[in-house]
Amino acid sequence: MTAQQYSGNDKAQELQVRSKLAQRLKDFTRFSPAIAALVFSVVPLMLPMPHARAAETTDVADVAASRQVIQIGADKPYSFAVYSNRNLQQLPAHAVRAVVFVHGVKRNADEYFLIGLHVLKMAQFTAADTLLIAPNFMVQADQGSSSAMPLWSGSTWMQGEASERGVDGVTSFQALDDIVHYLADRKQFPDLKEIVMIGHSAGAQLMQRYAVLNELDGPLQQAGIRVRYVISSPSSYVYFEASRPGGDGFAQPKSIMCPGYNNYRYGIENPPDYLKHQNLNGEQLFRRYAGRNITYMVGARDDNPNHRYLDKACGASIQGATRVERQLNFVRYERFLSAQWQIPVNHPEFQVKGAAHGADKLFHSEDTVRRIFPQQQ
C-alpha cells in the first residue's frame, strides 16, 4: 500500500484497531504484567498491515504478527487462520510439544493465544520446545475471513458441522484432523512427541466430541506422538447410550418429556457422517474413549444455571443444572459405564478454586498449569 492509497477510511480503521487492541492489552495486564509490559513496548508495530511479518521463532507477544494463514487438508488444501508463537513459514521446527488451544463462542482466537502464551510461560516452556497454535473457526463476517477458508454459520462449528461458505463442506472435526496431520508431518516437526488439545467453553464442546469421535489417536501413538485432551467447562457432553443422571444413579429418562435427547450432539443416535462411517456402537466408542488421555476442568464458581452462554436445551439440561454439575455427572457416568461394560477408565477432573467461567482466570491458575503439564512440576 502506498502513502497515496492510505485513505481516510484506512486511517479510521487503524485507529479502531488500535483502540480495540489497547483495551485488550489493558485487560491483559491484570493477569500477566511481565508479558503485557513487553506488548506495550511494541504497540506501534502491531497494526494489521497488508504484509505484516510472521511471528519470530522466539516467545511472541505481538498478537497481530502472530496471526498466520496455513495450508491444511491433504486431498483439497485450503487456508486456515491460526495464531502461533512460531513463524510457520520457516519450517522445519524442532519443538517437542504442540499445544492447540480452541477458543469459545466469540471466536476470539487472539485472546486465547495470549492466555496460551501465559500458560506456557508458567509451565516454563519456550517457543523453541513448545509450539502454540490457536486456530480460528471463522464466519464470513469475521475480520480476516477469506473465500479460500472454510467459513461456518454462527456457532455450528462447535458441533462438528460443515462449513457453508468459503470452502464449504469442511467439518470442524475435519479441520482439527487436518491441523493434527499438519503437526504430525515429520518434515515440518521432526522432533514432535506430544500434542495437547485444549478446548474451553464452546471450544470444549467441540473438543470433547472430537476426543470421542476422531480416529487419529491410535495412528499418532504408533508414530511416537502422544495426544492429550483438556476439556474445560463445556455446556454439554456427548453420552454413549440412553442413560442420563437421575438421583444417585443413571437411568433412561422418559423421552416424551425430552424427545430427541439422545440424538447427536447430546447422544450418538442420528450421528454425523464423521462417526457414521466408523460403524461403532456406544460400547465400542466408550472403550476407545476410555483409553484416551482426557482431563476435565471447570471453575468451582461456574455454578450459575442462568449463565448467558449455558446450553439450556432439554438434551443439555438433563445432564445437570450447571457446568460444574454436568462435569461431575459425566465423570460419574464414565464410572457407571465402566462397571456396566467392564471397561477400565481413569479420566481425572478438577475444579479451579475462585474461578467462574472466564478462560483467563481458569488458565492463569497455578493449579491448572500443574495439572495440564504435570511433568514440568
Write structural notes for this entry.
- The protein has a single domain, classed as 3-Layer(aba) Sandwich (Rossmann fold).
- Helix 1 (about 10-30) runs antiparallel to helix 2.
- Strand 3 (about 95-100), helix 4 and strand 4 (about 130-135) form a beta-alpha-beta unit.
- The chain is built from 13 helices and 13 strands.
- The strands form three sheets. It has an eight-stranded mixed sheet, with helices on both faces. It has a three-stranded mixed sheet with strand order 5-6-7, with no helix packed on it. The chain has a two-stranded antiparallel ribbon with strand order 10-11.
- It is globular.
- With about 375 residues, it is of the alpha/beta class.
- Helix content is about 35%, strand content about 15%.
CATH fold-level name = Rossmann fold
Biggest β-sheet strands, sense, barrel:
8 strands, mixed
Give the strand line-up of the largest sheet.
1-2-4-3-8-9-12-13
According to DSSP, the number of beta strands is: 13
CATH class, please?
A: Alpha Beta
- Fraction in helix: 25-40%
Determine the N-to-C terminus distance: 49 Å
Rg, Å, rounded: 21 Å
pLDDT averaged over residues: 87
What fraction strand? 15-25%
CATH homology superfamily name: Alpha/Beta hydrolase fold, catalytic domain
- What is the CATH architecture assignment? 3-Layer(aba) Sandwich
The low-confidence runs, each spanning 5 or more residues with pLDDT under 50, are: 1-22, 25-60
Order of helices and strands: HHHEEEHEEEEHEHHEEEHHEHHEHH
Number of self-contained structural domains: 1
Q: What is the number of helical segments per DSSP (H or I, 4+ residues)?
A: 13
Broad structural category: alpha/beta
Report the principal-axis shape: globular
